[in-house]
Structure formats: C-alpha cells, structure tokens
Amino acid sequence: MKKLLLSVFLLSGLVLMTTPAAHAQFSIKGGVNLANFNDTDASFDSRTGLMAGATYSFGIPMSPISIEPGVFYAQKGAKISEGSVETTTKLDYIEIPVIAKFDFILDNPMLTPHVYFGPYAGFNINAEQEISGGDSAGTFDIEDEVKGTDFGVVVGAGADITKFNVGIRYSAGLTNTFEDGDGKNGVLSLVAGVNF
Q: Which residues, 6+ apart, have CB-to-CB distance to 171 below 8 Å?
C-alpha cells in the first residue's frame, strides 16, 4: 500500500510539472477536526482538534479539474473512558494532501461548488496521552509508540463563494497509527478559508 501511495504522489508531481495551468489559486484554510480511530475493537470517542494550512490549485486547461497540493497542521487522536478515568490520545501531524478537484460550473460566477479526492501523507510531530482521574493522572509522551508517518486518502466537497471557500472533508488513514496494535486515523473536518 505504501508503494502504491508513493507512486500516486510521484505521478501527481509529474502532472504538476508537465501540465500548463489554465489558472492557479493560492488559498489559506483552517477548521475543526473531529478525530477518531478506525479498524479497532476498542470503543473510542472523538477528539476535537484544529487544522490549518494552505493549498495551491493548478487548473488543467479546457477542463473543470484542477490538482491541489497542500500543507496542513492537523490535530488527530481520540478519547476513551473507563469508569472515572478518561484517556485522551493527542496526535499532531504535518499533513500533505495532493487532491484532484472537480468544479461544477454554474451560471452564477460568484458560486462554484466542487468535490475532490486524493492521497495524503502525514508526518507525526507530537504524540501525547493525557490521563484524567485515577492515580495515573498526567500527560505522557508516547512518541515511541506512534508511527512517524501516516498515509491515507481524502474525500470532500465544498464551494468557492467569491474569494472565500467552505467545505467538509473526511481523511481516512490506510496504515496503522501505532507501532503495535490496531487503529487508523479517521478525521471529519469542517473547513473555511480565503482564496487569493
């Protein structure tokens, strides 16, 4: 799977270098993450976090499709409770998605809805476990227990409204988050930003 995702990233880069852009657009975006772990037997609750970053969209000539690489800071993780003890896993990533975006051209030039999908690579920059309640309360570094990279896919939908953009997206991790044990990152994001 990692080889497949690497191939997709390399192909996306090749497309960016060889395709003349009909238009290019820089955007700054931020939003709220509702993060959890998928493909695990444990019952987790979502962790609310932040995301912020920037994208650069390259339009493909004579097409409603554009390629949009980006760089984001993304807070992920999850919570689990056992009696009065709540454990929150806090994982922070630098995430690099490369998506293909399809614009729906309307008669109203001020509104452009779109859908998108593509792969992402995430690089862990912080891993902590916060325990509240019980005798083991505190915050603990779990960097050695968390994999340094996270690969997955992003799907989403949104709209450009004049110079602003809004959207909703879901990031699904395809690799286990932890060195030992199950659990893959899954994040629902509400996003808004400004186009330049």
A: 74, 95, 97, 120, 152, 153, 154, 185, 186, 187, 189
Q: CB of 30 within 8 A of CB of 52?
A: yes
**How far is the C-alpha of 51 from the C-alpha of 189, rounded, in Å?**
8
Distance CA 21, CA 62 (A): 10
The domains found in the chain, sorted by start residue, are 2-195 (2.40.160.20)
**What token pair was written down for 127?**
């891993």
Nearest CA to 86 out of 32, 47, 141 is that of: 47
Do 153 and 121 touch, CB atoms closer than 8 A?
Answer: no
Q: Are 77 and 49 spatial neighbours (Cβ–Cβ below 8 Å)?
A: yes
Which helix or strand (DSSP H or E) is residue 7 part of?
helix 2-18
* Predicted pLDDT at 23: 67
d(CA 80, CA 43): 7
Give Cα separations from 76 to 88, 122, 141, 163, 185 (angstroms): 10, 11, 15, 29, 7
83 φ/ψ sector (left φ>0, alpha ψ -120 to 50, else beta): left
- Please write the tens of the pLDDT for every residue from 59-109: 999 899 999 999 999 999 999 998 889 999 999 999 999 999 999 989 898
